[in-house]
């Protein structure tokens, strides 16, 4: 009984000096942390170690050094106990050809330990929940990409896990299908019955679904924070749109002791120094013959948090390459 | 049709025993296997030889009664080790055929569709997965080989008496032992082929070629070196040597039984190694 209490009181995920190497490649490097958020977004550029972390937590890879625990169950010694508490939605297509959705989800429920009849009942419920109720008897290979994604989500939650790993759940989905998937994830999170670890290239997905964000870089934790707390704690930014000699103006603003970052040719983000009023920016603009065409307050976005974690100035070309126009991370060519 | 608003809810009910999980895979695989009429036909046909065996055992033990009914049978056969060796030999061929048809599709389908991460993310390890898949062949080939053979042995014992059964208990042990070895060999080979060659037909062809080409090379080596040691390459012949050794019947041409056993064990170890390399949630290129 004491053990149960101890496990229940444990953080959802706990990693200690976790290192995973594949040959000479270090995928995770001395990662330590305790994560207990209801919904955690896992971010990082390609090769940062996101998928390796999820796979290690699922017991697919053995840690080279260190340990990983899920609800207090060590993945080396008690990985079956740990895995009975988790659901996993993989990034790639994973199904069994020739199977109907309901048979597929029932099989997965039975493998997770549900008795046959209960597994069948919950498979029907899970498929209704993800919106595949009407097509649950159709073979999986006839499903569209969006339907396959939802079938994968159904199999991940059919056995009622306490922790759900979602690896790129909106990958390749068109906007309506993406919206639908995001709504489902939010519904799951809102029930309060399950913790969600969402790995995504789409900052918007994480921003919409997650309370906390874990950012990995080069196999290490670059940042772990509560998004709401971070937004509250952050100083307010000013977003300016300018015409005229912007370069000289930026230098002058920095000269006032403000942080200033270029956002393209005419846009500027400024964090005012403690003693300064906005009026000072207008006076400076007047002196430099610059027009302030637009001024707005903007709180730190996830994009800013992400780029800061990457140690990048948002105005630099490297940062521009790291965040694509569609809000994905990693750059169009998948490299930093 | 009414559409109900449903929401996510945790499952807090009973769970099945961890040890029973691999056999969920077995159960589902059986349903798929017996969807094929061809498999059903071959499986049904495999009972023909035991049926003939049962008729013969009845005849051996009821010569007098049959003669009275006008059936004159030559008294040339008896239910001895050679008789049971022939029965198990035939059943072994059917087992090979079934393994050839069913085996190569067991794992390849999961690998082609990336289903392994889904299985292995559940409380099921790689050994459990292989056990679950092997059990499909294990059960099916047992029903084809040693179970009918043992049934015939019991039938003969019921006619000939407990004394005969005790005297020939080695036959029963050899039939079970030999058949189990054959089943394990076939299952491991079929699964290894299934894991490495994702195309089912090619997997079956390769599996057949391992036996056929092995036999051919064995004959060539025997001819070349004027020896019978070439049979170390012929898995079928090695099995015959082991089975004859277990039964105590004259050994067929080839290396001694111990060498045959060691060779078969080494071959099975290679199959296990091949499975270990492929049965993973994700392959890692280090």
Give a nutshell description of this structure.
Chain A has 336 residues and is of the alpha/beta class. Chain A has helices at 2-8, 50-57, 79-83, 101-111, 116-129, 145-157, 175-191, 203-209, 227-233, 246-255, 278-287, 302-309, 317-322, and strands spanning 13-22, 25-35, 39-43, 65-70, 73-74, 86-89, 163-167, 195-199, 212-217, 220-226, 237-243, 259-262, 267-271, 291-298. In chain A, 43% of the residues are buried.
Q: Strand pairing plus helix content of chain B: what structural class?
A: mainly alpha
Q: How many runs of DSSP E, i.e. beta strands of chain B?
A: 0
| Biggest pleated sheet of chain B | none
Major sheet description of chain A: 6 strands, mixed
Strand order of the largest sheet of chain A: 6-7-8-3-9-10
Shape, per Cα inertia axes of chain B: globular
CA gyration radius of chain B, whole angstroms: 23 Å
As a whole number of angstroms, the C-alpha radius of gyration of chain A is 23 Å
Number of helices of chain B: 14
Task: Extract low-pLDDT stretches of chain B.
Answer: none
Would you tell me the overall average pLDDT of chain B? Answer: 91
Strand and helix order of chain B = HHHHHHHHHHHHHH
Helix-strand string of chain A: HEEEHEEHEHHHEHEHEEHEHEEHEHH
Task: Report the largest inter-chain contact.
Answer: A-B, 52 and 40 residues
- In angstroms, what separates the terminal alpha carbons of chain B? 53 Å
Question: Can you offer a commentary on this structure?
Answer:
The complex is a heterodimer of chains A (336) and B (286). Chain A is an alpha/beta fold. In chain A, 37% of the residues lie in helices and 25% in strands. In chain A, helix 4 crosses helix 5, helix 4 runs parallel beside helix 6 and helix 5 packs across helix 6. Chain A is elongated. The N and C termini of chain A lie far apart (49 Å). The N terminus and C terminus of chain A are likely disordered. Chain B has 286 residues and is mostly helical. The longest helix of chain B has 28 residues. The chains are: A alpha/beta (336), B mainly alpha (286). The interface between A and B is large, with 52 and 40 residues.
